[in-house]
Write a structure and sequence with these properties.
The protein is of the alpha/beta class. It has 8 helices and 10 strands. The strands form 2 sheets. Strands 6-7-8-3-9-10 form a 6-stranded mixed sheet, with helices on both faces. A 4-stranded antiparallel sheet has the order 2-1-4-5, covered by helices on one side. Helix 2 runs parallel beside helix 4 and helix 3 packs across helix 4. The longest helix has 18 residues. The chain is globular and about 50 Å long. The N and C termini lie far apart (about 40 Å). The structure holds adenosine-5'-diphosphate and magnesium ion. Magnesium ion binds next to helix 1.
């Protein structure tokens, strides 16, 4: 678990001000869903937290340590993307263990972590399969398993369920939330899907044009929206 503070974090591309300045406190163990229309800056914000994109201002603080500008490889976090990018020639367990192997971890410890992760993600029996022999949902689970084995304190999810069909998405939603609870992680989950936000979040942060509109529990946003955008985005109460 980790707590995360964003202090006036900014991003611009030349003259294009994508994120004029966001401040946000995420508590240790929280599951925060970052939601907003396409182009509102959700991915950019996650990528800055992961260190895949430089900030143009502000600070990112994890457990009281300023990680702004820190090498992404040194950040104790894992990011799950919409596309899975698995190694096609490796089996499920090889895909999951690869990053640990590269770090020189003891093979027994790797096997132990991979077995735990396989179990947690419901992939038992599929360990020897290659990505081409798996369904889209199973591939996304392998991608999540690859993050789980690293046991990071912070999870960043960038629309990981968008490529799944509606039924599978509903099911995987619950599984992601259960995984977060079981790992006692802190998570930011990006989506443009209101239902995902309402059903998964401890708190929802709603973004529009790089501006944070409101952050609060699903109930708070639903019952006391701060503006018309929040009300219409999440659906107004009867
Ligand atoms: P979201 O994930 O909410 O759909 P993004 O963070 O991907 O939004 O994008 C936010 C805005 O930043 C968009 O207007 C997008 O065109 C712009 N943007 C993202 N990456 C770049 C880049 N490398 N260069 C210029 N503009 C970019
Ligand atoms: Mg995006």
């Amino acid at each position: 678990m980790a707590k995360l503070e964003l202090q006036n974090v900014k991003k611009s591309y030349g003259k294009l001000d994508v994120i004029p300045g966001i401040s946000l406190d995420i508590k240790s163990g929280e599951f925060v869903v970052l939601v907003g229309p396409s182009g509102s800056g959700k991915s950019t914000l996650l990528r800055m937290i992961a260190g895949l994109e430089e900030t143009t201002g502000g600070k990112i603080i994890v457990d009281d340590e300023d990680i702004t500008g820190q090498d992404p490889a040194l950040r104790d976090l894992a990011m799950v993307f919409q596309t899975y990018a698995l190694y096609p020639h490796m089996t499920v367990e090889q895909n999951m263990g690869f990053a640990l192997k590269m770090r020189g971890m003891d093979p027994e410890e790797i096997a132990h972590r991979v077995a735990d992760s396989v179990e947690m993600l419901g992939l038992k029996g599929l360990e020897k399969r290659k990505p081409g022999q798996l369904s889209g949902g199973q591939r996304q689970r392998v991608a999540m398993g690859r993050c789980v084995v690293r046991n990071p304190k912070l999870f960043l999810f960038d629309e990981p369920l968008s490529n799944l069909d509606a039924k599978l998405r509903a099911q995987t939603r619950l599984e992601v939330r259960r995984l977060h609870d079981r790992l006692k992680a802190t998570s930011i989950f990006v989506t443009h899907d209101q239902v995902e936000a309402m059903t998964m979040a401890d708190r929802i942060a709603l973004l529009k044009d790089g501006h944070l509109q409101q952050i609060g529990t699903p109930q708070e946003l639903y019952l006391t929206p701060h503006n018309v955008f929040v009300a219409t985005f999440l659906g107004t109460p009867e």
